[in-house]
Design goal:
Length: about 160
């Protein structure tokens, strides 16, 4: 059952990242024409960057985990160790952060705009709505893939209990 629970846990991390991507993209689309924010200046496009969570463990603890994993794979690898430990194996995790791109704007000429400078130019966010929609569709597909993976893991667990 540990493998099935691990699959569900990994997919749940993926769901969190994709939800953050969709939220950032929705905010970008909503503010595509915002020329003045509370901080001043045009709205800055946001994006979500994700990566595997880095471990800051000591070398000996990393080696210890590797030895434990090796011992669980086959009894002859490390005599005297259990084939399967009752402890929970550490899974890789995902960390993400929302980044606001600074100084990303376009300048258009619109003298009638309330935020136009003395020459009639306005700074507008450098957001292409079509690109944002593609990003939203990509995040939605990845979110859907994670939900399908969770459903498959749940189905496998149910079938295993029926055996």
């Amino acid at each position: 059952m540990g493998g099935i629970l691990n699959a569900i846990q990994l997919s749940s991390h993926g769901l969190s990242v994709q939800r953050a991507r969709m939220n950032a993209t929705a905010e970008n689309i909503a503010n595509a024409e915002t020329t003045r924010t509370a901080k001043g200046g045009p709205y800055h496009r946001k994006r979500v960057v994700s990566a595997e969570k880095s471990e800051s463990d000591s070398f000996s603890s990393v080696i210890g985990r590797a030895v434990d994993r090796l011992a669980r794979t086959h009894v002859r690898h490390l005599p005297g160790k259990q084939l399967h430990s009752g402890g929970r194996e550490e899974l890789p995790s995902v960390e993400w952060e929302e980044i606001s791109e600074s100084d990303s704007y376009r300048i258009i000429h619109d003298p009638s705009h309330p935020d136009a400078d003395e020459d009639g130019y306005v700074k507008v966010p450098d957001i292409e709505v079509v690109n944002e929609m593609v990003e939203m569709m990509s995040a939605a597909r990845a979110y859907e893939a994670n939900t399908v993976a969770i459903a498959a893991a749940k189905k496998m667990a149910q079938q295993a209990l029926e055996i």
